[in-house]
Amino acid sequence: MIVSGPLGRALSDVNTLMWRSLIRYKRRPDVIVFIVIQPFVLLVLFRYVIGGAIRIPGVNYVEYLTPAVITLGVISASIVLGVSLTEDLVSGAVDRLNVLPIARSAYLTSRVVYDTVRNMFVIPLIALLGVAVGFRFSATAPNLLVGFGLVLALGIAFAWISMLAGLLSGSIEGMQGIAILLFVLLGFLSSGFVPVSTMPSWLQGVAGASPVSHVDNALRILTTSARGPVTHEVFAALAWIGAILLVTVPVSVRLYSRHSQ
Amino acid sequence: MSGIECEELRKAYGEVEALGGVSFAVEPGEVLALLGPNGSGKTTTVRILTTLAVPDSGAARVAGRDILHEAERVRRMIGLTAQATVLDGFLTGREYLEIVARLRHIPRSRRRREIAALLDEFELGDFARSPTSGYSGGMRRRLDLAASMLGRPLVLFLDEPSTGLDPHSRECMWDAIRRRAHAGATVLLTTQYMEEADALAHSVIVLARGRIIERGTPNSLKDTIGGSVVELTLADPFQREEALACLAGAGDPAPSERAEVLSFVLSQSSPPLLEILQRLDAYAIEVSDVIVRRPTLDEAFLHLTRGSEEAPTRELAPAVG
């Protein structure tokens, strides 16, 4: 690290803490396996078990399904983050860090940066699993990048939601409860697995407006033969992500720095 | 420059008062032991001085820096071994030290040397490449201590460092602390073991319910109990009650672990030892052994905290460390 001064030190702290996370995943590959196996199970389940009964006119279901599984994979991976943050808070590991002369922001930042880097690998990997069960891309390279970038951004938003939940819950069990609720509600109450138009009208508004729906729709239009108002979907998704970050980042940072006092 | 100075530190958690106005100073090279039962405010004091908690009122300087306004600078000067040993089980001992050393911003060239020296000092060299999840309790504590000494902090905080340590690990730790103090570090340790304070500390502060009830050197603390302790071993343990009755008024009875041993503290008003023995002899109570000794710090501590428990103005001890 050539940058010096407070910023240089903060960057070096983030770097060190990411190294810690890297070793954690290296020694506990089961965490990574869990992150990829879950989407794979979803893919197989919805493609071969449930998908046969789902008819979406003019659409091959595996093409409809795969973008949603990619999104859901990133959301569920972010749960791991909140749980391990709670672990670090409860066990006293955070205290141990806070007594060191490190930048206060380094811990939370390192977790998010690390997760984002990891998602850069997780997203294409899930897409490849989709290909394995019959998904076919029909996208230009720039469209693909925009689509994946959008999922990556959604991952950052959910990383902060997950950390905020971890900071608020105060116990590992509580955090897992919140996480599962979040996962099921946001993941399935969306356009991810069936079109919103098949839902009762009172639910359509909620499901259609969800950030997950907008990312799913945008990804579908960008990477498959599906057509739709792509700009609208992308901007709606970005607006959601911005709003989530606007709330979760300052609140999380505040809670984190107050944690021990 | 003083190592630690604090004045009138107060801290309450909700309704529970954890610290009720604590002031003391520790000089560089000095080892201070905070002695007290659970909930006496030891850990709260350490948390405040290490910038992990903020006092409700009062002020403190550590290594000359204000804990509230120069917290970042304070953190650069201190090392803490907290009560609970939390290590990342997936890291090896060396990796753990490496991460702490990097977070302390120790230059690369010094890092390697310092880590090697600490692994050696704490007898962890053979396990440096094994994940800490496989370490014994003693090894984990030693690694934790080693980490707190990275970067040669000017002020060391050790919160009940010998809890759960085997005798060998404890000796190893005591030596390490003595070396740091000898080299000029300021050391504050909390302990429930009087033996530890006796072995390490230059000065001792006894805390009870968030207040200082006594301070001094280990020796002066022993003096507060009064005179010598007499231990009489009875030839027949069944004569205990009889002997106690006969010795009424001769001194302040002290607890004893064995039924056949009567121990009590001689006070100013006690009769001479010879008279005590004659009194027992007159009742045909045979004494097989007599020991006269200085009180242990344990006895001094019990004596002091018993006094505080009887004080009617104080409330029940909170369950905060």
Mean pLDDT, all residues of chain A: 88
pLDDT < 50 stretches of chain B: 309-321
Low-confidence stretches of chain A: none
Q: Overall mean pLDDT score of chain B?
A: 85
- Largest interface, Cβ cutoff 8 Å: A-B, 24 and 25 residues
Helical content of chain A (DSSP H or I, runs of 4+)? over 70%
Helix count from the secondary structure assignment of chain A: 10
Q: What characterizes the major β-sheet of chain A?
A: none
Assembly state: heterodimer
Number of helices of chain B: 11
Percent of residues of chain B in beta strands? 25-35%
Radius of gyration of chain B: 23 Å
Task: Summarize this structure briefly.
The complex is a heterodimer of chains A (261) and B (321). Chain A is mainly alpha-helical.
Can you offer a commentary on this structure?
- The complex is a heterodimer of chains A (261) and B (321).
- With 261 residues, chain A is mainly α.
- Helices cover 79% and strands 0% of the residues of chain A.
- The mean pLDDT of chain A is 88.
- With 321 residues, chain B is α/β, with parallel strands linked by helices.
- Chain B is 35% helix and 26% strand.
- Chain B has eleven helices and 14 strands.
- In chain B, helix 5 (137-148) runs parallel beside helix 6.
- The two termini of chain B are 29 Å apart.
- At the A-B interface, helix 1 and helix 4 of A face helix 2 and helix 3 of B.
Descriptors:
heterodimer; A: 261 residues; mainly alpha; B: alpha/beta; four-stranded antiparallel sheet; 11 helices; elongated
Q: How is this fold's topology laid out?
A:
The complex is a heterodimer of chains A (261) and B (321).
Chain A (H helix, E strand, L loop, with lengths): L4 H23 L1 H22 L10 H31 L1 H6 L7 H27 L8 H29 L2 H17 L12 H9 L1 H13 L6 H29 L3
Chain B lengths: L3 E10 L2 E11 L4 E5 L6 H8 L7 E6 L2 E2 L4 H7 E4 L11 H11 L4 H14 L15 H12 L6 E5 L7 H16 L3 E6 L2 H7 L2 E6 L2 E6 L1 H6 L5 E6 L5 H7 L5 E3 L6 E5 L7 H10 L4 E7 L3 H14 L11
Helix pairs in contact in B: 3-4, 5-6
